[in-house]
Amino acid sequence: MAPTDARSGGQKPFVSIGLPVYNGEDYLEEALESIAAQTYRNYEVIISDNASTDRTADICESYAARDPRIRYVRNPVNIGGDRNFYRCVELSRGEYFLGAAHDDRFHPEYLERVLAVLEADPEVVFGHSRAHQINGAGDVVGIYEGRPFTESSRPSERLRDAIDMRPVIACLGMIRSSVLRQMPPLVPYPASDAYWQAELALHGKLVEIPEVLFYRRVHPNSGQRIPIHERIRWSDPKKAGTVTFPAWRRPAEYARSVMRAPLPLRERMSCFAEIARYLLQRERLKMLVRDVRMALRTLLLRTRLGHWLASHRHRADLH
What we know:
Layout: E1 15-21, H1 28-36, E2 43-49, H2 56-66, E3 70-74, H3 81-91, E4 96-99, E5 105-106, H4 110-120, E6 124-134, E7 140-143, H5 155-164, E8 174-176, H6 177-180, H7 192-203, E9 205-217, H8 232-235, H9 246-260, H10 265-279, H11 282-301, H12 304-318
Parallel strand pairs: 1-2, 1-4, 2-3, 6-9
Antiparallel strand pairs: 4-8, 5-9, 6-7, 6-8
Helix pairs in contact: 5-7, 5-10, 7-9, 9-10
C-alpha cells in the first residue's frame, strides 16, 4: 500500500504523470480528459507550463481547481522543452514517472496495464504500449509497428537494441523513479531522449506491451516535424540559431552513459563495441557528414558572402 500524503487526499501518489506544455490550447483538454478517464486512480499530474501565451494557463487552472491530484506550475520564461520536461521529474513524488505530451492521449487502461508489467518484474525499468497514430482532428490514421525490446539480461545487448530503436519513446513511457533519479537530467539538445533511452537500457529491461493503448498525434506544429538541425531552438531557446552536431553528440552521450553505469569491465567493453558498431553503419556515417555540411552552411550564411549568395538565390527563384 502506498504511504499517505495530505496533498493527495491522504494517499501518496504511486504514479507521477509529468505533462510539460507550451501553447497547448488546441489539444491540452483532450490529453487531460484521457488521464482523468484512467482506470488506475492513484496518480498525480504535474503540469509545467513553459510561459505559454495562449489559453493554456486558463485550461490548467480550471482542471487543477477541479482535481486535487493536478498540480500546475508556470515558468516565468520559456526555459526550453527539455528543461521543462525535466522540471516535471523534479516535482514528481511517485514510485513511477510517466511522461505525457499535451497533444497525445491515453487509452483508459494504459496506466493499469503498463504499471502491472513493471510491478511484476523488478528488472523492468521502463514500460510503454504500442500506439495508434492520430491526426490533428484526433482521428486514427495509422498504427505504429510493434517493436518489442530485447529481454536479454546483458546490458550490452539491451544497449544495442535501445540505440537501434526507431522511433525513440523514452520520454513517453513509464519509468521506475528510483532509476530515473540515478540518471543525469535530460540534456537540452536535439534528440536527447535517445540518450535517455540508451541509459535506461543499461539499468534494466525496457518493455513494450503488445496492446495498442496510446494515441500519438502528428500534426503540422508537432515537435517531430521540426528538422533535427533546427530543434535547438525548442530544446534551448537561448541557443537558437547555433550550430549543432546531433549525429556526433549521440554516440558521445552513449559513451558517457556507459562510463556512468555500474558495469563489469567485460560488459563495459562490449557496450563500447556496440557504440562503435552503431557509429560505423553507413547510415550513421552519412549523418555525421551531414552534420558537418549543415554546420559549414550555417557558418557560411553568417558571412557577407553567404548573405550575397542567399539574396542572389532568392532573386533567381523570383524569376
